[in-house]
Task: inverse folding
């Protein structure tokens, strides 16, 4: 682990910091095993959430909107045929599990909390961290989908902006299997979009993108590939533009993310993610 003071200085300057060796091989093995078990136990016949940043149809997907305080599996677009049936075993078709793993599953709860993470969060400026969202991301071989340039503050907005991403590499992440790409220093730019939830006249909740600032997304010339070994923690400022390419390789790229905000900032009531009051928000402790 690098010196924390240096790491936090880098975070302020670059909008991200890479902390290799943050999680042990045992912790990673436990988390991956548990994730595969959740997928095995999932019945895709009844519920077939598909996640894609291309697919605006998901904006009407009630299951997506209900997943803020549940555990839900989402499948890759390319794994479904025209009738929405899976074309391969679900373990090879899964895109991600979200979004309250850190509160509802004991193995994920253990991985997502503890003094080491609490210290990192405080160092990054989250004086009173609240964990809103967790995702196990599979990036399966061959069909793992692209995640386009975005800022996490688009999806989890507070005033002032405080959302911070904690991205754990559970397998070696390389250019071949779809590692993260970031724009160093890009967090000093504006928030470009907000993903806003609204109740329609028909009483149905939908989400849409709302333009905030027309600044273009970075091009390839300023993007930096974060090729990191399993066990690495990457912390991302909520305004840092980042993306990941499709995985066309023969191996998966498992990762786990937790997104936290600072409780001293104001949570936007029109964020897509909602929590039932019986599931109180917690910090990293
Ligand atoms: Fe992100």
Result:
């Amino acid at each position: 682990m690098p010196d924390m003071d240096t790491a936090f200085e880098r975070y302020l300057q670059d909008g991200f910091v890479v902390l290799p060796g943050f999680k042990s091989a045992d912790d990673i093995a436990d988390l991956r095993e548990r994730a595969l078990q959740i997928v095995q136990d999932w019945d895709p016949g009844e519920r077939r959430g598909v996640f894609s940043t291309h697919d605006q149809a998901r904006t009407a997907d009630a299951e997506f909107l209900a997943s803020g305080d549940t555990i839900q599996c989402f499948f890759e677009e390319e794994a479904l045929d025209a009738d929405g049936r899976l074309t391969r075993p679900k373990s090879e078709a899964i895109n991600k599990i979200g979004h309250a793993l850190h509160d509802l599953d004991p193995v994920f709860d253990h991985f997502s909390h503890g003094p080491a993470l609490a210290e990192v969060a405080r160092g990054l400026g989250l004086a009173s961290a609240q964990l809103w969202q967790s995702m196990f991301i599979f990036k399966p071989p061959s069909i793992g989908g692209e995640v386009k340039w975005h800022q996490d503050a688009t999806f989890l907005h507070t005033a002032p902006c405080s959302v911070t991403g904690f991205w754990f590499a559970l397998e070696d992440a390389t250019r071949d299997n779809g590692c993260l790409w970031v724009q160093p220093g890009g967090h000093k730019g504006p928030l470009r979009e907000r993903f806003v939830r609204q109740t329609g006249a028909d009483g149905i909740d939908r989400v849409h993108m709302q333009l905030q600032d027309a600044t273009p997304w970075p091009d390839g010339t300023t993007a930096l590939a974060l090729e990191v070994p399993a066990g690495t923690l990457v912390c991302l400022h909520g305004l840092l533009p980042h993306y990941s390419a499709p995985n066309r390789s023969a191996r998966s790229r498992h990762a786990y993310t937790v997104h936290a905000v600072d409780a001293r900032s104001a949570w936007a009531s029109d964020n897509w993610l909602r929590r039932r009051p019986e599931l109180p928000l917690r910090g990293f402790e």
Observations:
- Residues 130 and 283 are 5 Å apart (CA to CA).
- The chain has a mean pLDDT of 91.
- Residues 150, 152, 165, 242 surround fe (ii) ion (CB under 6 Å).
- The radius of gyration is 18 Å.
